[in-house]
Design goal:
Keywords: Nucleotidyltransferase, Transferase. This protein has about 60 residues and is an alpha+beta fold. Helix content is about 35%, strand content about 35%. Strand 1, helix 1 and strand 2 form a beta-alpha-beta unit.
Amino acid sequence: VVFRISPSHSKEEVKELKQFISQSDGDMPVKIIINNGSKTTTKVLEKTIDMNSETKRWLRKF
């Protein structure tokens, strides 16, 4: 599951995404791409999440 965080996302949205990832249990690996406007950073998390309707809602947002 890949989430792309861009400058258009608010700090509150990113905070809510982090909270969702921390509370979700499953076997899907999580990759986060952070674009701050001038630099792009990619991180693969050790945490895995479940692919469900809530995850899909977050994917539409990020």
